Amino acid sequence: MSNYPNQNPSGYPYGAPPPSQSYSSAPYGAPPSGPPHPNQPTPYTPVASPYSQPPSAPPSAAPHQAYGGYPAPPPSAPYGSPFASLMPSAFPPGTDPNVIACFQVADQDGSGFIDDKELQRALTSYNQSFGLRTVHLLMYLFTNSNARKIGPKEFTQVFYSLQSWRGIFERFDRDRSGKIDSAELREALLSLGFSVSPAVLDLLVSKFDKSGGKNKAIEYDNFIECCLTVKGLTEKFKEKDTSFSGSATFAYESFMLTVLPFLIA
């Protein structure tokens, strides 16, 4: 087995930086870049650009830059820096005093940061009960790091985001069952600016359905995790798709650093 690396016919040795690879798959619903193939299926949701345009921000998110109905996270950190230190921050002007008070109660040591368990407790106090995995995804997307701490600015963004998401979930849970099915999830994602294919939609429902896919529906807490995953991966892809063509080129390390945080949250 001493010659194992040389048995790879591609000559790609284990541990060596791989060449850049293009993962070129036009977003579902985007117009094709060339003439249609005779056997190409009709797009599920035709839109004018590779990414569905998000709606305008709700009033509660007005103090912040908005995308898809919730405040946008800060610019992404460079690939290779998922463990970058979190910089101190302050509450944005006009922040609801209740949000400030909630953060201060959670920040018992007065450090200006709260950790994952403190954030989980703070959200629970507002009837936003989430598992630690969802909390970790929230922290990652709003800090662009795996520091698992957030400051006042990020906490405020998380709080307003969850307000918007809860409103969206309740709007599409038309039968008030506490769950949304595949069709309702598709509409909810579209309202956030994300157009996904039926195949991806089925995978999302199977992944986030607490019954293991039997109910074919997802509850509110898993809906948040689903939205975080779709939003995060889409934003990371768009960082590389600078021409908005629906195609992007990732080096191997960049690809791994893009996907793994969503798997290990």
TrEMBL record:
Stored CDD domains: EFh_PEF_Group_I (cd16180)
Compositional bias (Pro residues): 29-44, 52-61
Any one Pfam family match given in the protein's UniProt record, by short name: EF-hand_5
Keyword Calcium attributed: yes
InterPro entries recorded: CML48/49/50, EF-hand-dom_pair, EF_Hand_1_Ca_BS, EF_hand_dom
Keyword set, alphabetical order: Calcium
Keyword Membrane: no
GO molecular function, one term: calcium ion binding
EF-hand domain residues: 94-129, 160-195
Segments for region (Disordered): 1-73
Protein name as catalogued: EF-hand domain-containing protein
Organism: Buddleja alternifolia
